[in-house]
């Protein structure tokens, strides 16, 4: 990737996906001018309404353009009542995950100062951990192909050594970077159910093997049920939490609830070559079209994207811009920005203004 010629494919999708994407592109434009970083965007069609209009949810041309870009920024896709002919949901983001091998679903969970949270312990510091959801196998392995007969249904849980090693290595490297940034010892905790399923005992053994490569980082395990309890009891105790696909799906919604809701939950789906950055939320039909969607999750996802591009050789200015964007979001909420999802009156445009003013 040549510095100053980074190409980002943008898939706004449906519902508030288009609104939070537009807001984020406006902020990114200001940021790229301010930092003199060359970043061009190309908006591509895909999603439920595109399916309704054309019979295609994710045109091959959009997929290829996304694949050849340096990074992919996605809004959200899907709409109630619009389903593919076979009855399955319209979810091009899942196609991207599987076709581009995006095994690490990274969900940072950080309480933004000023945003009301349900739990806090001033002595323990704020909530700041990262879920790393395996995103290509686990209980999603038989997605859409599970066996269903008149009398029973069966889905497959698959854990492979290769993917578990990659997921584990990714998690330990992330813990190293966080430890350096936060000035504390890093800790990686695998979330599993090794007491019941042989597949998870296998996952644990593979994880433990990788842990030996990272003696500077603490490693441990936690059963998923106990983790659900402890994330509510003392979420500030955790650092990096790799886990199986379905567990990660569920825990990431729980985790979003800890820090203000879906509007504050960024995410990235990262593979060896490609990465998709998107808010963890969906298209929110109940508030779509009203201009009140909270774009914070997408703004923070864009910051993750700039940081990832920097790590891929786009240049230090991208890392600086990422930190600046995150700082601007924090600053806006610290000084009173309050979006509708946390009981305030600030709409999408107000967030764009408040964040842009701080860049
Ligand atoms: P999916 O099936 O894609 O996970 P979902 O049905 O779980 O979608 P979401 O769209 O993720 O639903 O969000 C659930 C609700 O949370 C929405 O209906 C909306 O009220 C609220 N919500 C989600 N994202 C935002 C946002 N960015 N700003 C404000 N409210 C939001
Ligand atoms: Mg959901």
Kindly describe this structure.
Residues 7-355 form the Isopropylmalate dehydrogenase-like domain. There is one protein chain. The protein is of the alpha/beta class and 359 residues long. The chain has two domains: 1-106 and 265-359, 3-Layer(aba) Sandwich (Isopropylmalate Dehydrogenase); 117-259, Isopropylmalate Dehydrogenase. It is 42% helix and 18% strand. It has helices at residues 16-35, 48-54, 60-68, 92-99, 161-182, 198-211, 224-233, 245-258, 296-314, 316-334, 348-357; strands at 6-13, 39-43, 71-76, 104-110, 128-134, 147-148, 153-154, 187-192, 218-223, 240-243, 266-270, 275-279. A ten-stranded mixed β-sheet has the order 2-1-3-12-11-4-5-10-8-9, with helices on both faces. Helix 7 runs parallel beside helix 8 (245-258). The longest helix has 22 residues, at 161-182. The model has no long low-confidence stretch (mean pLDDT 94). Residues 16, 20, 78, 262-263, 281-284, 286-287, 293-294, 297, 341 line the site of adenosine-5'-triphosphate (ATP).
Topology (elements, then pairings):
Layout: E1 6-13, H1 16-35, E2 39-43, H2 48-54, H3 60-68, E3 71-76, H4 92-99, E4 104-110, E5 128-134, E6 147-148, E7 153-154, H5 161-182, E8 187-192, H6 198-211, E9 218-223, H7 224-233, E10 240-243, H8 245-258, E11 266-270, E12 275-279, H9 296-314, H10 316-334, H11 348-357
Parallel strand pairs: 1-2, 1-3, 3-12, 5-10, 8-9, 8-10
Antiparallel strand pairs: 4-5, 4-11, 6-7, 11-12
Magnesium ion binds at residues 253, 282.
What's a quick, concise take on this entry?
The protein has 11 helices and 12 strands. It is of the alpha/beta class. Strand 6 and strand 7 form a beta hairpin.
